[in-house]
Amino acid sequence: MIVIFSSIVDVLDFVIVDDSNSEQKEEARSLLKVLQSSDLALRLHLMRDILGITNELSQAIQRVGL
After folding, report:
1. pTM passes above 0.70
2. Hey, where are the domains in the chain?
3. Given 11, 17, 18, 23, which residue has the most CB atoms within 10 angstroms?
4. How far is CA 22 from CA 4, 8, 15, 32, 54, in A?
């Protein structure tokens, strides 16, 4: 999600500006607000770091054969 974050924001902006369906516009606004919160960004970066470390540990354990 981190890699395609800007594309997701662009699509939601497009829906807000160009979509005639007011229900979809409101849903896009809500999603955009959540995505742009610093809390979500922090969680995404922490999960990427944690999963990266976990993956390295898992591979090391598999090499050792434990």
Report:
1. no
2. 1-35, 38-66
3. 11
4. 25, 19, 10, 15, 43
